Predict the structure of Major facilitator superfamily (MFS) profile domain-containing protein.
Amino acid sequence: MERTISRPSIRSHRSHSLRHLSDIQDYVPQEPVEPTISTGVGMIARSQDRIDNHEERKDIAGVDNMDPKSHYVFRFLREEKPLPSKRMMGVMLAVLFLVMFLAGWNDASQGPLLPSLQTYYSVSLFLSTIWLANFAGFMTSGITNVFISDAFGFGIAGPFGAAMQGLAYILICWGSPFPLFVIAYIFNGFGLGLQDAQVNSLVTRLENSSTKMFLMHAMYGFGATVSPFVSTAFVQHIPNHVYYYFAVSLGLALVTVLALVVVFRGRTDNQVVGKRQLEVKVNKDGSTTENEPASKENEGSGDKMKQILKTPVVHYMAFYMLIYVGIEVTIGGWATSFLIDERGGNDNSGYVSSGYFGGLTVGRVVLIPVTKRIGNHMSIYLYSLITLVLTIIIWFIHSIVGNAICFSLVGVFLGPMYPIVMNVVVEILPGELQGGTIGWIASLGQAGSAIMPFMVGAISERYGVWILQPFTLAFTVADILLWFLVTRSWRKHVKSIDKHSSNPVTSDEKKDGEGRDQSSSSVNQMISDLNRNGNGENAKNQS
């Protein structure tokens, strides 16, 4: 068999040569070129245009539109995509609101359902068991959130959290055996904690994030307001099968998963809002440096978690949130029992939970201008003091109507505190740590929602439900003391930023300036040499 050797045609050689000739024709003088400044600048400009065109061709080919150092697992997560349109951003925000609605729906339904569920399972340690299972799920999400976010981003982590919550409802809604019921609450806590961390982290990066944070958490309150009406109806009409209520929750969870998948389509935080911008970072010694978070987001997840856990202000805010969310959920879960046992109320007392969570919703909307006017930190102190006064009134005024009104007002002034803390995280911490910190704080807050109602339940079994008010009073005072530590750290941060603004030229910038001066002097020397040589050539030509 003869071997055929393929040779390129003469035409292909010619076209290839012509293409290369066109690439270099700007640099081959067709006639003598006078070495003037304008000639050199023109050559440089044409070469830069060719470099830019080459880069554009590479981008079109898909070579340079990907971060080679990205920590994401899948290739499509590392690609740079066009940011969503303004209309699509509105749809995405609505889906985030739906996630928080489901969280509120879940938290507020437990109070009316627990007595019937305890009767159904006939387990003496029913309350303590499910609270501890929830706590285990929340803590697991807090520890793993940074690793999941760095590996998969919001577009996968968010739907995964909602799916875990849906799995919990699947295990519960058919009246499963008690051990399986407890395992389901572990999945429920993990899913809620992961979603809470992902959603809060993303909203802090949106435009006008402060207002959107308040409105999003108002949707949590709205879900918590609606839920007791539905769960109370199940208790009244089918008390022996109240677990059917979780079939409704399952439907909401599936809708949430579908909405997250369809709307976000696996996008990461950066693919939704863009990369983080340059910011000023405050060092441990009080000095400041300019920091580019986008360049540090690819650091190892373990290193980020170590930095988060080594930062004192993170722990101040985390324990503040643990107590705050614990108080919030404890009041919503035990207010009904308090009115029935201590004030002689009836089954209609269950609607007090709806009034309380309704106040939570109203406070997160109505108090937005007040919070912006007096500032985040002063708002925390003011709202906490008003909560203390209302708690004392509930404790000593033995009136069902008066207590119900005061519970609603407590919800109004407790409401804004959660979004305020999330906004303060963005003020204090560098960008590459904000997502992990918000996840840790949110998860620890959810852990508080599990462990503190359990504490009240354990104490009330021996001493009575009246301990709800002194319990709320003591832990609100503890929260105020913790926030004092947060304020002190924030003031140090602000002073360092102001000092950086008043002395904008750092040592690195000074070196850069010296380098620019040296470069400019070298350029001036080169230009003078060019002019001198050009004048010499002109003199020769004239002679």
Confidence is low (pLDDT under 50) at residues 1-34, 54-64, 505-524, 532-543. Residues 86-121 form the longest helix (36 residues).
